[in-house]
Amino acid sequence: MTGTHRVTTAIALAGCGVVLVAMAGCGRPTPQPGDPLFDAIRAEERGAGNLTYAESQGRTLFGHYCATCHGDEGHGDGQNASNLEPPPPDLTVPKNVSDPALVRRVIAEGSAAVGRSALSPPWGRSLSRLEIDYLVAYCQALGRKPAK
Amino acid sequence: MEVRQTVSLRFHVLFACLALAFLLILSWVLLREGTAEWRTTQARFTKLEATVKNPHQLAQAAQAGGLHQIWLEDLGRVDRCTTCHLGIDDPSFVAAPLPFTTHPGTWLTTHPPDRFGCTACHDGQGQATTYLDAGHHPQSSESRAMRPLETIEANCGTCHRALDPPDAPRLAEGRRLILQSGCIACHEIPGFEGVTFSGPALANIGYKVRPEWLHAWLKDPKSYLAQSKMGNFRLSDAEIASLQAFLLSQREEAPSDSAGVNWSKASTDNGRALFGELRCVSCHAVNGRGGTMGPELTRIGDKVRRAGLFSFLKNPHRTQPATPMLQYRLTDDQVRDLTAYLLDAYRATDTPEPAPAAYQDARAVAAGRAVFEKRGCASCHRLPGVTASGRIGPSLAGIADRDPEQLAYGSSVVRRTAENFIFLKVLRPDALLQPSMMPTFSFTPAEAAKIGLALAGIRKADLPASYVQKRDPPPVFRPAGPFGDLVDRYRCLSCHSVGGYGGDLSTVPLDRIGSQLKHDYIASYLLNPGAVRVSLEARMPVFHMASEEAKIIADYFSTVFLDDGLERYDARFTPAESDRGKELYRQLGCASCHQLGTTGGYVGPELSHTGERLKPGWIAAFLTAPARYKPGTLQPDYGLSGADARALTAYLSGLGAGPAATKGGVR
């Protein structure tokens, strides 16, 4: 056992290290066996319109707080819509939800705050900032969907 | 001498080589350290910071240089994620690219990094300082890779032990499914302590059901009822036959009360009217529509025997003491008509009811009892003479920390993780290449995944108590005396809650009901519950209650379920206040949700009779802080000033208060 031997080993190890780092850097991880639990949740999300996490949280909130007037899918056809004049807008029309700041303001301060009717109430004191973030995200997603 | 020189030369050469090698290694190490991934990342951040912040902010900002780490002694974690995620708690970086962007939402406000770190929620390898080693790719790391957002709620469950965790809908749904499917009857599941589950008592099942129904049910409950809570036990035909014989021999008490009933006079029309009036669909679905507290009735005529159904409708509590179903105050003729209607209208087959056969085959009965005991039927169903088997399944404590290599995955090619095992097991208990006693519940993959999420947060590692968020089960409310008897008879607590104890089908907890509703209104409403909330599907049943019963309940509500703060309200309003309230009602757009007369929406309650219905103190308090009294209410918080709330209260209290105060509400 000489020093030369150890040096060779060390250099070899270092070389291997460099090669490994290089390999890890360029390649994607090789395909692995599946994650059925993850896949099941992804499949459900795709079924619901391929929403991000925030958007799907927004969808749940939308169903609870908004859908009675705005409709389950945001078309402005909720069961209470016929009682409203002016009727709720169709949120799947991109221009109705294209400005996130405006959407946030209408949700938080009510439609009267942007000079429209008082029919859509302010939710800023009932919902947390996070919840309103989610709702804004979901409204954006509604406008993104291809028109049916 | 020459030898010495040779040796010396050899040493010199060796020394030179060694020195060179060390130099090479040293420079390689220095180079590697100098160009480490986290250093180049930090260099990128410094450049970005200069574009995001003004010079003043830059001067204030701490130097990014060096490894950052959060040491959580309590949790035994060291997280170095902030070495690269440098803008994570700085809102200036909200539009910055990964890894510098700000953490979305308000999560870091509720979960400060110095208390929770990163890996407590996200998993991954906290000590690593390269992208791959940290486990960013779900499959790049052998153990504890980072969780994708899709399944992150599993980690919420590790600390949040209350059954309905905030902001984690998938976890909440998983826990609801666990509760509803009765998993806790067979398994000990941390987080569900003190919760019990039971199926119907079976002492009289021999008088209750038809044999052919029982056979089909035991073979596959879903064939009769798609929403059946009972799973499929995958019994053999021989097991089904013996279990059927054993169960049909269970006849503790004959349903003698229908003996004198004249069935030839039964009126199904009258029964249909009663079915609507009693609001059976608040709890029972028919043809897919209606409540879910009781079983769907669409094929009830194929299931039950006439005498058994009559007896149950007359007094559900005699054979099923724990049922959530109330005992209506009906005459025998009414019960007869209702029975006849149900059996006539809700059946798929026309086979007449067979006469009760005598099951005397002692061997079959004994074999059936053995199956009943072996498969743990008594974990859910009470049966005299069979001791409750308790939880026959394994405890699920620490299930998420089980060694993935020791678990069975059947023929599925999956990554070996505890949660994939849980998912497969919940979905198809019999497909994991090991015999399983667990019934198949026919969950959809999405349902199984949510149950998996709920279980995947159950770790055996001890969490410091200061991290555990749980809610103790509410104290049992069981009043004594005549009021207690009525609460028991009409099963108020199946839908309403007191101090959090009871059901949540009703939107109205009873805790302060006496300060919300006027005494006379309570009494008249109980006798004839109208639809205050027009669009509500689940409505309060029409009990056919005696008027003295209604008075006992109204008296109790108005003396016990009080909120002193609401009672002290000064209800002497001026006409000016009332006028101002009327104007506010218009301005705020109240009519978009509330009906008044014939105009307005039907999201909230109808308001035409508010004055005879609600106490002013309650109106004012609720309008001022709706979510405080009803979390998740659709009544928005308008941030009303005290004067505005009072004005609206003055206006609303004047609606319908007057000589017409005896009407029972609007249908």
Q: What do you see in this structure?
A:
The complex is a heterodimer of chains A (148) and B (667). Chain A has 148 residues and is an all-alpha fold. Chain A has helices at 3-26, 36-47, 53-70, 94-97, 100-109, 129-144. Chain A has a single domain, classed as Cytochrome Bc1 Complex, Chain D, domain 2. Chain A is elongated, with a radius of gyration of 26 Å. With 667 residues, chain B is mainly alpha-helical. Chain B contains 31 helices and 8 strands. Chain B has helices spanning 2-34, 37-52, 55-60, 107-110, 113-116, 119-122, 153-159, 169-181, 183-186, 205-208, 211-219, 221-224, 237-248, 268-277, 300-303, 306-314, 316-319, 332-345, 362-374, 418-427, 445-456, 481-489, 513-516, 519-527, 547-560, 564-567, 575-587, 610-613, 616-624, 626-629, 642-653, and strands at 70-72, 77-79, 285-286, 289-290, 497-498, 501-502, 595-596, 599-600. In chain B, the strands form 4 sheets. In chain B, strands 1-2 form a two-stranded antiparallel ribbon. Chain B has a two-stranded antiparallel sheet with strand order 3-4. In chain B, strands 5-6 form a two-stranded antiparallel ribbon. Residues 659-667 of chain B have low confidence and may be disordered. The interface between A and B is large, with 51 and 63 residues.
Considering residues with a beta carbon less than 8 A from a beta carbon on another chain, report the largest interface and each chain's count: A-B, 51 and 63 residues
Task: Assess the beta-strand content of chain A as a share of residues.
Answer: under 5%
Low-confidence stretches of chain A: 18-31
* Number of helical elements of chain A: 6
Strand order of the largest sheet of chain B: 1-2
- Give the overall pLDDT of chain B as a whole number: 89
Q: Shape of chain A, please?
A: elongated
Q: Specify the structural class of chain A.
A: mainly alpha
Number of strands of chain B: 8
Here the CATH topology of chain A equals Cytochrome Bc1 Complex, Chain D, domain 2
Radius of gyration of chain B: 34 Å
